[in-house]
Amino acid sequence: MEPTDKNFPLKDELWLGIEWDDPVRGRHNGCVKGHVYFQTTENLSSATLIRPDKARFGVNIYDALVHRYFRNTGKAEQNEEEADAKKIEVEYDEEAYVETLKKLKKKIEFVGFNKIWRKITNLREIKEVSLPGLAVSDIGAADALGNILPNVQILSLESNLLYDWNQVFLIGRELRHLTSLSLSNNYLREVPDVREVPSILVNADGSRLPVSPLGIFGALKNVVLINMRLSWDQVSRVLPAMPGLEELLLCRNPLIDSANLRLPEGGLPELRLLNLEDTQQNDFAVLQPFASCSKLEHLVLNKNYYKRLGAFTGFTAITMLSIDDNNLEDPAILTDLARMPKLTSLRIGHNPFSKETDKTYVRQRAVAEIKALKKINGSELKRFERKDCEIYYLRRTFEDYFTLVGRPFYDYDFADFCKFAKANHPRIEELIKMYGNPFEVQPKQEEVKNDEYRKGKMVRVSLVATSGPSVGKPAVVKRFPDNTTIMNLKPIVGKLLGLDANKMALKYRNVPSDPFTAMDEDLKDLFYYTIKDGCEIQTEEK
């Protein structure tokens, strides 16, 4: 349809008012030359007036089936008979060919096409039907669809012209084996709660079937309702028609009426996947009714407005959570997620975390806080990565506390730290039991003038080169004060191992079974890195 209201209005003529799904195609909001004929949604300039002969009112589902799956079969029937007579399974299409190197045309052979064609023409055998964008507006009379497609299990009707939930309920009545239904980009008028509706309206002839839509989709497991202008109220009204749902996709619907969300009596006991991408969510408490879904494993919350999830109960079966492209700024969201004990896969990218919270810290804290996590942002955890992350997170939490209270790492109140950790980092107590306190409180000393360092304790370390002239040679064993900074240690190590200190990085492990930890803060000392007697320090090129 093309907008044609430039010369409107003309006397004694019938015109149709159209509101486009794409507002850019509109010319006005329903008011033309000062006269209001109708009003568009939100008063947008998304309307057009057209002549009736320019409008297309849709087709019934049977015409769409013919258009989608059938063609002029004269040639096909002839080819099929010939193929059967010769007992071969090859067909040719006059319009299908490729050019050879000599610019000649060679027909494409369709091997086994005769069998495929016979299967398609027998609609009663079809189990999957896809009719996207074919302007389907009519499901037909009662019992017709069920007689034509009795064994269909998967039905896709995206981007058509369906307009009434009764059409959907009629599909459920007709197709008893239906397990997957997609209705995306159809805009349906509101419907009463199916629990209060005693019959189904047959739009084709206006008759009513004395059947309640309650539980009408007995076999349905997957329903896709993307971009249908649905509210929580509308979703809640139709869910009782689909009691066995395992996958519910509601992406790109304005689900902003949070007070209207309610699940059917008995909940959705089989629900495993819930996709709420781009549904204008900002409060996780709204989704609390879904906490009762004991099998809910996969939750998608991308492209919403979440900052935190806050306190919640339930959701104990969640194994996969995606919360990309939200408004997450505070890494404390990871503490919230730790309440999901089975969470193994997390996507949390494209969020505006503060500059102090880089991607590395988010990953390390996520791994440290969420015990079951195995994959983050599509990347599998590497061997020993969990232990590295837990140790890093433990040390980082201490450092954040020292900065907060303005105390040095060798003189602080451990009891006060424990209160801080319990309130903000609940797993720290467990990590201290696992790895020990990396900043054991030192005996208090008198204040030293000019900020002199505390007296260092000597520690014995083994220096091992992984590059340069000392590769393969025995380790160099030396003793250093534990207040030696990494900046001062590097030139000594470089001289002992014949390496350029400016192109050298250090890493350490206290026992051979531990993974190596980078010593990447030059102003920190050996005490900061909890270097103990017998520690191994390795060099590597930057």
Question: Mind explaining what this structure looks like?
Answer:
With 542 residues, this protein is α/β, with parallel strands linked by helices. Helices cover 22% and strands 18% of the residues. It contains twelve helices and 26 strands. It has helices at 61-69, 74-85, 113-121, 144-148, 165-174, 232-238, 333-337, 359-369, 385-405, 414-424, 428-435, 486-497, and strands spanning 16-19, 31-32, 35-36, 47-50, 59-60, 90-99, 105-111, 128-130, 136-138, 154-156, 180-182, 200-201, 208-209, 222-224, 247-249, 273-275, 298-300, 320-322, 345-347, 375-376, 379-380, 458-464, 476-481, 504-509, 517-518, 535-541. An eleven-stranded mixed beta sheet has the order 8-10-11-14-15-16-17-18-19-20-21, covered by helices on one side. The longest helix is centred in the C-terminal third of the chain and has 21 residues, at 385-405. Mean pLDDT is 85; it is low at 86-96, 108-113 and 443-453.
What characteristic shape results from the CA principal axes?
Answer: elongated
The largest beta-sheet arranges its strands as: 8-10-11-14-15-16-17-18-19-20-21
Oligomer: single chain
Q: Helical percent range?
A: 10-25%
For the record, give the distance between the C-alpha atoms at the N and C termini, rounded to a whole number: 64 Å
Q: Give a quick account of the main beta sheet: strands, pairing sense, barrel closure.
A: 11 strands, mixed
The proportion of residues in beta strands is 15-25%
Radius of gyration: 34 Å
Poorly predicted sequence stretches spanning 5 or more consecutive residues: 86-96, 108-113, 443-453
Structural class: alpha/beta
Number of helices: 12
DSSP strand count: 26
The average pLDDT value, as a whole number, equals: 85
